[in-house]
Write a structure and sequence with these properties.
globular, alpha+beta, 126 residues, Glutaredoxin, 4-stranded mixed sheet
Length: 126
């Protein structure tokens, strides 16, 4: 029996949370020591609570090369990058960006451009 073909991409939004680790005392620091695990855990908890699986996947990533900006998060397919994310910020990202389609401007690493409405589209029936 063959497995049914899967729609590609399999997720409407894919969230990557940096979990890079550097040696103690490294001048750039790293996302893990700045709270990356708590951010990842909160994303997973809220994606589950909001019943966003399997449409949205939050997972750890390797280095996103933005270590000096605190815990970094990137959301695809929109390629919205967030900096200095804390576990306390995650609920706002989930409810505003992942559910409503409106990126959280105060956390964006790269502010929206004039031609960018900031709207990325809501998720299904969420």
């Amino acid at each position: 029996m063959t497995e049914p073909a899967r729609k590609h991409p399999p997720y409407e939004r894919h969230v990557f949370i940096c979990m890079n680790e550097r040696p103690e005392g490294h001048p750039r620091g790293d996302c893990t020591k700045r709270g990356g695990q708590a951010v990842l855990d909160r994303f997973k908890e809220l994606v589950d609570q909001h019943k966003l699986k399997p449409r949205i996947r939050a997972q750890k990533s390797g280095c996103l090369d933005t270590c000096e900006l605190g815990v970094s998060v990137v959301v695809y397919p929109e390629a919205v990058w967030y900096a200095r994310v804390t576990a306390a910020d995650v609920q706002e990202i989930v409810e505003s960006h992942l559910v409503q389609g409106v990126p959280v401007e105060r956390l964006r690493m790269h502010p929206s451009r004039p031609r960018d409405s900031g709207q990325v589209g809501p998720i299904g029936n969420a």
